[in-house]
Design brief:
Length: 114
């Protein structure tokens, strides 16, 4: 792996990790949503610290350039994060719909009583 790329990935990993931890500390981000981001930033740092891992992984899956293997792993990880957040949004949407229906029923009952 190119030294410049290695340093860039290392910096991005540390910046991302410190940003996520500060957001959790200031309660701008809940811990359960930050875990995947923390793992992602730690993966950045591990990949930068041990450039043999991308070489090994690239050879394993048949990618010529290890940098492309790094980007593939990161893209897959980000897809996992997006899937996790989509599931959370779907659950919240269902809860809001159920609450709106419950409120409508309660209002209807109140109108019938009065």
């Amino acid at each position: 792996m190119n030294l410049r790329l290695q340093i860039s990935i290392l910096l991005i990993g540390f910046i991302l990790l410190t940003s996520i931890l500060k957001m959790v500390q200031k309660t701008k981000l809940e811990l359960k949503y930050s875990i995947l981001w923390i793992v992602s930033s730690v993966m950045f740092i591990i990949i930068a610290a041990f450039p043999v891992i991308p070489d090994w992984f690239a050879n394993l899956i048949g990618i010529i350039e290890p940098a492309n293997a790094v980007f593939l792993v990161l893209i897959l990880f980000e897809l996992g994060i997006n899937l996790n957040l989509t599931i959370t949004v779907s659950k919240q949407t269902n809860k809001v719909k159920n609450m709106a229906q419950y409120i409508a029923l309660m209002e209807n009952q109140n109108r019938e009583k009065s």
